[in-house]
Design a protein that fits this description.
The longest helix is centred in the middle third of the chain and has 18 residues, at 80-97. By secondary structure, this protein is of the alpha/beta class. It is built from 8 helices and 8 strands. The chain is globular and about 45 Å long. It has a single domain, classed as TIM Barrel, CATH 3.20.20.150. An 8-stranded parallel barrel has the order 1-2-3-4-5-6-7-8, surrounded by 5 helices.
Length: 255
């Protein structure tokens, strides 16, 4: 049985952010994730989380100016100081929530751009070094170009090769089933091959990114395969409810 984490950036949007923790708990979730907590004080996030007896599965490092189009800044050489400051900010929120996984978004760029690659590597080394003493993994996630055109980290083989090359003990892979299917397909083989590198999994239907079981993949078979492979981490429900969060939760009954 997968350990499901409600994604509070996409689910429970019928309520203000800090109220979503309680709504997730009432709906039967024991863990949550979200994109970013930074619009609220770390103490408020921690209180909403712990006050509802929830576990924080994951959130992202500060992405730069999201409203202006930034999708992370790790691969942007001119934003080095900003990235490093963001790591320290994220660790403050990590201390308040007890989270053990932080996703470092790469930002836009070309993988054959040597300066972008060097910036990305430097950023990951710094983040891993800073997060390591707290027992926190830094995750990288390949994201498809249809949802995020021009994203630097856009290939699972590239991610796996980079993790192997850098050989940092707390640099790990975030395997999003939705992005994997759009980028490469071959989801089950990808999970089996990459499992030793995976620290977090996310799921949504393809292509609409709605509830699992409503798209082209047999999402329930994929989740059963995760169990069979011995995966014990969280599965983040990073999907957009098609007709309201609570109305769409019946898919969990099939697990």
């Amino acid at each position: 049985m997968p350990r499901l984490a409600a994604n509070l950036s996409m689910m429970f949007n019928e309520w203000p952010f800090l109220e979503r923790f309680g709504k997730a708990k009432a709906a039967g979730f024991t863990a949550v994730e979200y994109l970013f907590p930074y619009e609220h004080p770390a103490e408020a996030i921690g209180a909403a989380l712990h006050g509802n007896g929830l576990t924080q599965a994951l959130f992202n490092l500060p992405p730069g100016n999201w409203a202006a189009g930034d999708r992370g800044i790790a691969a942007l050489p001119a934003r080095k100081d900003e990235f490093r400051a963001g790591v320290k900010t994220a660790l403050t929120y990590a201390a308040a929530t007890g989270v053990k996984r932080l996703h470092a978004m790469s930002g836009h760029g070309l993988r054959d751009d040597k300066a972008a690659r060097a910036s990305y590597v430097d950023a990951l080394r710094f983040a891993c070094e800073q997060a390591g003493p707290a027992g926190i993994d830094i995750l990288i996630e390949p994201i498809n170009g249809r949802d995020m055109p021009g994203y630097f980290m856009n290939d699972f083989a590239f991610a796996a090769d980079l993790i192997t090359e850098l050989n940092l003990p707390n640099l790990r892979l975030q395997f999003d089933i939705y992005h994997r299917q759009i980028l490469h397909g071959d989801v089950l083989t990808g999970l089996k091959t990459l499992l030793p590198l995976i620290s977090h999994v996310q799921i949504a239907s393809v292509p609409a990114r709605n509830e699992p079981g409503t798209g082209e993949l047999d999402d329930f078979r994929v989740l059963k395969e995760l169990d069979a492979l011995g995966y014990t981490g969280f599965v983040g429900c990073e999907y957009r409810p098609a007709a309201g969060t609570l109305a769409g939760l019946a898919w969990r009954e099939k697990l």
